[in-house]
Amino acid sequence: MMKLKINKWSAINDREVLLNGESKLVFDSTALTDQKLEVAYRALGVSYPKFFKMDAQSKLGWLSAEYLCEGGKLFDTSASKDVALVLSNRKSSLDTDEQYQQSLTNEEEFLPSPAVFVYTLANIVAGEICIRHGIKGENNFLISESFDAAALVNYVTILFEEGLCEQCLVGWVEAYHGTLRSMFASIAKTTDEKAGLLFNIENLNQVYQTSEL
Amino acid sequence: MSELISKLKQQIVDQLNLADVDPAGIDENAPLFGEGLGLDSIDALELILLMQKNYNIKIATAEEGQKIFSSVRAMADFIEAHQKA
Predict the structure, then answer these.
(1) Residues of B with CB below 8 A from A47's CB?
(2) Which of these, A54, A77, A157, B80, could form a disulfide with A58 (CB 3.0-4.6 Å)?
């Protein structure tokens, strides 16, 4: 019987960057959000000028995927249409929505930025990751009150069972009012129940909670 | 003119968040789109904003925009002509 496993996971919070629970980078506690995101980007040693045009949430998601793949390919497949992406958070794109709303209410200088406007959708972060890693499969962004492992496991399992993907990136990404919180896990099929962490509600919840500690 | 070109290069870097681009290293005669800085359609809108915000210039048509944004020098030429008018 086909089982799904969590191959590996990454997380970024206000304190550090984690890969499979191991700390990869610790932020200066006095640094601002933008500074933390830039430090995490510089530490990767990659060149991706588009990074600096993204809003904080897209930067956070982009970095989470980048740390997960450790400088290589995110998935070991050339069939990018077989890779799905399922992300979630609580506040959608509210951080950037508020920023854009403020620019709309500035009567003295009514010059709302098109570059900010394009990030007033939660699933833009998924688009940025798909562009970077050439992912062309199913993707979705779910909004829920809190991290909903049951919804994510159910949805992703259906994608696999219906043959809509062979591999999947699933997780949580939220940047809001200077607080960063992400957890990404790469999911793949396995026939070996002892190989890695099985992808189920309990384990996904455990990974999420570990990434918050 | 050279002062305006230098100022414009810095404003482009700031407006478009070109974090790793040294303004002094931008070739004022090189095309802004397609090669060189590799700008995209959203950048074009941001450049329109830059002209409006800093020089009170409103780009009237897409054809005019294509001509004005062909290079940093073309932008500077247009600003200078606008200021003299």
Answers:
(1) 20
(2) A54
- Identify the structural domains of chain B with CATH numbers, from first to last: 2-84 (1.10.1200.10)
Beta bridge mates, A186: A8, A169
* Nearest-angstrom CA–CA distance, A89 and A93: 9
Say what the ipTM of the complex is: 0.83
Closest CA to A112 of B40, B49, B29, B56: B49
Tokens of A5: 């496993």
A35 in B contact zone (CB under 8 Å): no
Tell if the CB–CB gap between A52 and B45 is shorter than 8 Å. Answer: no
**Do A52 and B49 make contact, defined as CB atoms within 8 angstroms?**
no
What distance in Å separates the CA atoms of residue A185 and residue A178, rounded to the nearest whole number?
A: 23
> How far, in Å, CA of A11 to CA of A1, rounded?
30
Q: Does A52 touch chain B (CB under 8 A)?
A: yes
Model pLDDT for residues A59-101, shown as the tens digit of each residue: 999 999 999 988 777 776 566 678 999 999 999 999 999 999 9
